[in-house]
């Protein structure tokens, strides 16, 4: 219980005091509460039961008794970072495709020739659960070292029942192996498995896998890759209907390589997010805003595929679409285990402001996972997921590439 009432002396009125496990003080806070950065100079945060019991200006703090105090000496504190789109559980390596793209082949050419997603499917099917976990942990550790406290992890490199469920199990085991919160997403509709008939595969995804995954609580959401080399609008709509019927969230790999109306389709299903969006027409923004579908920008994939067409950021802003930024960490299009770098790229390549980028890897990313009531900002009642930074100014977090200036990382109230 964070709040305790104690009688300071007999006869006096009760004094409200917070019994905190950890008190953070001397900090500059970027709370992300409200519409902007929510800056609080000389702030304090009281943590009890793993949650934020109180946060605000030190001068306004109630009485706090703390078991431990973390003095920040003017350092900045942000919410723990949230990477809301990753494929980090996979086996194998596809660096050869980097060289092939440099020599002129496109991502779609490589996929059609049996490389791309299919190559990682072969490697992931061959890996046992322990091997998959062992291969995934260093990628997770790289994210944690830069202040990430929540990640999303997609399946989609198994494309058969056993391997997809293994990927989702490994995703959950990441949260047992490390101090991190994991949101798992079923991406069975990533590609048609080699040698299989597409409608029979979609039957497996929609009739068997989605209901089973929902019943077992193996994932919170369902994603589909709507693209010429993957699934059509009609096929994705079928997947999304099954997801909704099973009570799971909807996410979409939308309009990455061409405009197939994917962002608009996602919005009609009330998707939590539509991701990539390079070819999304500006007119889709209004429907996304109405549906509360977050635009998840993935500038790492844009960079590595040497794309030139950019997401319609101005239209998203004008329509009030929330924008998040994520790594898309995967072995092909975005082998980038740095969320901070992706925030930098979102500014440089897509024109986001520093404020948009920082909200994009905190509160808006939480929204893309439907976790904004639990994480993403520094507000009383939310989990105490925090990053303390040795920087003199907030822009420094994205204006510099290199070792993360992380001073402390706190997950659910525990310094890790
Ligand atoms: O988000 N676009 C589809 N899926 C992944 C890439 C998968 C892969 O190439 O392995 C992406 O870019
Ligand atoms: Fe992706």
Quick recap:
With 416 residues, this protein is an alpha/beta fold.
The major pleated sheet works out as: 9 strands, mixed
Shape descriptor reads: globular
Q: CATH class of the largest domain, please?
A: Alpha Beta
Oligomerization state of this entry? Answer: single chain
What are the bound molecules? N-(iminomethyl)-L-glutamic acid, fe (iii) ion
CATH third-level topology of the largest domain = TIM Barrel
How does this structure look, described?
With 416 residues, the protein is an alpha/beta fold. It folds into 2 domains: 7-79 and 377-415, Urease, subunit C, domain 1, CATH 2.30.40.10; 81-368, TIM Barrel (Alpha-Beta Barrel). The chain has 15 helices and 17 strands. It has helices spanning 95-102, 107-112, 117-126, 129-144, 161-177, 198-216, 233-245, 262-268, 284-291, 299-304, 313-319, 339-350, 354-360, 363-368, 396-399, and strands at residues 3-6, 15-30, 39-48, 51-57, 63-71, 76-79, 81-83, 148-154, 181-189, 221-226, 249-254, 273-276, 294-297, 323-325, 386-389, 406-411, 414-415. The strands form 2 sheets. Strands 1, 2, 3, 4, 5, 6, 15, 16 and 17 form a 9-stranded mixed beta sheet that branches. Strand 9, helix 6 and strand 10 form a beta-alpha-beta unit. Helix 6 (198-216) runs parallel beside helix 7 (233-245), helix 8 (262-268) runs parallel beside helix 9 and helix 12 (339-350) packs antiparallel against helix 13. The two termini are 23 Å apart. The structure holds N-(iminomethyl)-L-glutamic acid and fe (iii) ion. The site of fe (iii) ion has 5 residues, from loops.
């Amino acid at each position: 219980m964070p709040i305790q009432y104690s009688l300071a002396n007999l006869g006096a009125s009760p004094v409200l005091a917070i019994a905190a496990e950890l008190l953070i003080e001397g900090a500059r806070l970027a709370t992300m509460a409200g519409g902007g950065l929510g800056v609080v100079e000389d702030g304090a945060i009281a943590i009890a039961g793993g949650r934020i019991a109180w946060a605000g200006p030190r001068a306004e703090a109630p009485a706090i008794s703390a078991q431990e105090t973390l003095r920040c000496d003017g350092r900045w504190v942000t919410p723990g970072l949230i990477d809301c789109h990753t494929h980090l559980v996979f086996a194998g390596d596809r660096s050869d495709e980097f060289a092939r793209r440099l020599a002129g082949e496109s991502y779609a050419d490589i996929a059609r020739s049996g490389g791309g997603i299919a190559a990682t499917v072969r490697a992931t099917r061959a890996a046992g659960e322990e091997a998959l976990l062992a291969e995934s942990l260093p990628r997770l550790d790289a994210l944690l070292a830069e202040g990430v406290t929540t990640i999303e992890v997609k399946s989609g490199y198994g494309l058969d029942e056993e391997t997809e469920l293994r990927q989702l199990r490994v995703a959950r085991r990441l949260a047992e192996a490390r101090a991190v919160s994991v949101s798992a997403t079923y991406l069975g509709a990533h590609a048609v498995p080699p040698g299989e008939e597409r409608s029979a595969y979609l039957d497996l995804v929609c009739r068997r896998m989605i209901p089973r995954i929902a019943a077992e609580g193996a994932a919170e959401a369902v994603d589909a890759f709507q693209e010429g080399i993957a699934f059509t609008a009609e096929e994705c709509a079928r997947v999304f209907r099954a997801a909704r019927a099973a009570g799971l969230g909807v996410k979409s790999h939308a309009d990455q390589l061409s405009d197939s109306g994917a962002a608009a389709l996602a919005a009609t299903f009330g998707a939590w997010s539509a991701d990539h969006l390079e070819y999304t027409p500006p007119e889709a923004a209004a429907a996304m805003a109405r549906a509360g579908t977050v635009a998840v920008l993935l500038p790492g994939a844009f960079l590595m595929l040497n794309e030139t067409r950019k997401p319609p950021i101005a239209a998203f802003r004008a329509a009030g679409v929330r924008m998040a930024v994520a790594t898309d960490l995967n072995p092909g299009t975005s082998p980038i285990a740095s969320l901070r770098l992706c925030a930098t790229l979102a500014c440089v390549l897509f024109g986001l402001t520093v404020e948009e980028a920082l909200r994009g890897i905190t509160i808006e990313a939480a929204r893309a996972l439907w976790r904004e009531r639990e994480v993403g900002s520094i507000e009383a009642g939310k989990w105490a997921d925090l990053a303390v930074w040795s920087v003199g100014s907030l822009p420094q977090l994205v204006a510099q590439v290199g070792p993360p200036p992380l001073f402390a990382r706190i997950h659910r109230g525990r310094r890790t």
